[in-house]
Amino acid sequence: MHLPSIVIALILLIIIWFYIDLTLGRKKHRSFFQKRETPILYGNFDIFPHGKELFADYFQELRNAQNHIHILFYIVRDDQFSQQFFDILKAKAREGIEVRLLVDQIGSHKVKKPAIRELRNAGVQFAFSNRIRLPFLFYSSQVRNHRKISIIDGKIGYLGGYNIGKEYIDQDPKLSPWRDYHLKITGESVPFLQREFFIDWNEYASDHVIVDSRYAPRQPKGTVPHQFVPTEAGFLEEKYFHFIENAKKSITIGTPYFIPSKKLIDELLRAAKRGIKITIVVPYITDHMLVQEASYRYLRKMLLAGAQVFQYKNGFYHAKSIIIDDHLCDIGTANFDKRSLFLNKEINCYFFDPAFVERFRGVLHKDILDSKPLKLEDLNKPNFLRSIKEGIAGAFSFFL
Questions:
Q1: Residue 248 and residue 327: Cα distance in Å, rounded?
Q2: Residues labelled catalytic
């Protein structure tokens, strides 16, 4: 057999292996994941759209911790800002505070062994989430823990789009200022957020923790009705479909990556056809190769259907949100893309309070004012290089 034939055969075998691994891995994942969501609970919320303000508040609350600190992030970098974060955790652990840090193995691959050793020597309990495991090596390499959760003393929670790295506090010249949404939470739902953390912790850490009143003390009610919904293995698509299907007047989507499934894009087009006003906010600049080109085929369809699309120009837009009519909004960790829909572990907070929805609409309106309308003629201008990128992006859109 000639060398070219051998190479082609090997490539075909790899493709077949990828397909079988992905298909069987996803099937197994769906078989053991049980859908779970909190009941409607009541809490109080601060919204942080700027990283500097968020982390000033967050770091201060970490320093004030009295009993325990439990943290899950997708990305922790190896830079000065991350070192400041580590220094706070080590100092609290030396005080005798229980500190647990869980980070995604691939998203936080820059956290090296010396840094982990220092954390553990100081008393911080550290673990990698979503390690690559047999028998489905390819599938497990793609299923990332994209959740960002922090719980302090079982009384204060944080949830949203920010990670730990210099870009999130506007120290990356290309992506600054970084625009995102992160929630600070108090009220009766924080213990539920604590339980979600330990579900992930118990899957990957060496010790198995039973959550009791030490970690999840009963908290007084707040004023804003909401619900936490963790998703993985494709169940987020069902949630989003239900929201779109039941919209009566308007749908507003903010996302850094607009790469919906066929089921969701079809339902959005049906919503537009029945007169629903649809607004989509996406970045003008991109932080990952091909994700922008992957979105164009869907944005063309939405523009043809009468939707408004805005490209955020005052920095990089990484926020994740959905507003339905005047009574529901979603803020969380999930992007409006196939990776968040079908692969990643995510957690979103859904709000059912018209006053809070109106409050958040003001935040999103500010972002629209800082955006440029995207026109269909812009996307339809002949551009050979962009067309090539769109073709490649379309082939790999499931993984972008």
A1: 11
A2: 146, 148, 153, 318, 320, 325
Distance CA 187, CA 185 (A): 7
Token couple for 211:
């959550």
Q: Which portions of the chain are predicted below pLDDT 70?
A: 1, 3
Query: What is the residue whose two structure tokens read 């943290």?
Result: 71
Non-local CB neighbours of 398 within 8 Å, separated by 6+ positions: 338, 339, 342, 343
Q: Which pLDDT does position 340 carry in this prediction?
A: 97
Element (H, E) at 208: none
Helices 384-396 and 291-304: angle between axes, nearest 10 degrees: 100
Task: Please list, residue by residue across 173-196, b when 16 or more beta carbons sit within 10 angstroms of its beta carbon and e when fewer do.
Answer: eebbbbbbbbbbbbbebbbbbbeb
Provide the pairing of β-strand 328-332 with 316-317.
unpaired
Cα-Cα-Cα-Cα dihedral sign, residues 159, 164, 169, 173: negative
Model confidence over 128-185: pLDDT tens digits?
Answer: 999 999 999 999 999 999 999 999 999 999 999 999 999 999 999 999 999 999 999 9
Contact between 119 and 86 (Cβ < 8 Å) = yes
